[in-house]
Write a structure and sequence with these properties.
The protein has 14 helices and eight strands. It has 309 residues and is α+β, with helices and mostly antiparallel strands. A hairpin with a 2-residue loop joins strand 7 and strand 8. Helix 8 crosses helix 9.
Length: 309
């Protein structure tokens, strides 16, 4: 392993596993059986000592989609537009524990961390995470994949950084840029708050990237700038404009897909949009019975009311 992979390896495996996860992991092991390769905890619950009072975000890594789902539509949808996203509850000693879990194969996880047009994976999984289920081989594989995602993210953002920035400012710029590719951009302070939760992680990550990335140069104590020419910066700006369109389309397609993979998928879409925008449309029982057909009309109504843009 190289220095960046070593860093990701330590980050994935060193933090203590939050209390309360066991019932969820047991249900995932039962559901996916021999197809289950590993489970990664990410998102805000990654920083909690106990996850019993929140919605846990998990990435379920499988050996293959047919092994995980059989030969039906779920396997096809997961291959066409990863990940499939599901909601699950488990009974813990102190009550119900809830999670939202995404499914991806190890092979596709690796490939998507290099994607040119879809930022979903490399924008999320170069952030601090914790491997909560998996052996040493899985830990090494996921660490290498996350290192690849960090390189991809830095490569996409470095041309946008012509003036020296601190490590934290670099990644605030990076996250803010990807937020503009979502259906509903996050509030301006979200990126700054996220980086502030793990300051040492982002400082060390940037220092390592600067030693191996020809596009990123250290120009002083904890200050960096991109090493790209003006033509490269102009092309990069155009690519990000295109990615703002493609990112919203991918985001919309994943929401529609979740309408079919979630139990109460229409309610999930309504909750998701309301959480980010404050706009709520009450779904009908007909929408709940035919979620994939209803999702298009619901999306149109939400767009007209400002639920996303």
């Amino acid at each position: 392993m190289n220095q960046l992979t070593d860093f990701m390896h330590d980050s994935l495996g060193s933090a203590p596993t939050p209390a309360g996860l066991a019932p969820l992991l047991d249900k995932l092991a039962e559901r996916f059986d021999h197809a289950l390769t590993g489970v990664v905890l990410y998102g805000s619950c990654h920083r909690k000592a106990d996850v019993t009072d929140g919605l846990v975000d998990l990435l379920v890594v499988v050996s293959g989609y047919r092994a995980a789902f059989g030969a039906g539509g779920l396997a096809m949808f997961n291959w066409l537009l990863p990940p499939n996203v599901f909601y699950m509850e488990a009974q813990g000693p102190d009550g119900v524990i809830r999670c939202k879990y995404a499914v991806v194969s190890l092979k596709q996880f690796r490939r998507r961390m290099k994607s040119r047009i879809d930022h979903y994976f490399w924008a999320r999984f170069c952030q601090p995470t914790k491997l909560v289920l998996g052996d040493k081989e899985t830990l090494a594989a996921v660490a290498a994949i996350q290192a690849c995602g960090a390189r991809t993210f830095a490569k996409r953002i470095a041309p946008r950084v012509s003036s020296p920035l601190t490590a934290h400012e670099f990644w605030i710029t990076a996250l803010t840029t990807t937020y503009l590719c979502e259906l509903r951009p996050e509030p301006p302070d979200n990126a700054r708050m996220l980086i502030a939760h793990d300051p040492d992680y982002w400082r060390r990550l940037t220092a390592i990237l600067a030693t191996e990335q020809p596009l990123l140069e250290a120009v002083g104590p904890d200050h960096y700038r991109g090493l790209t020419s003006r033509p490269v910066r102009l092309v990069n700006g155009l690519v990000w404009q295109l990615r703002r369109v493609s990112g919203k389309l991918f985001n919309l397609a994943r929401l529609f897909k979740a309408a079919g993979t979630f139990s109460n998928g229409i309610d999930y879409i309504v909750w998701k949009v309301e959480r980010h925008s404050g706009v709520r449309i009450e779904p009908t029982e007909r929408m709940r019975r035919h979620p994939r057909l209803a999702a298009w009309g619901l999306a149109w109504r939400m767009w007209r009311q400002g639920g996303f843009r």
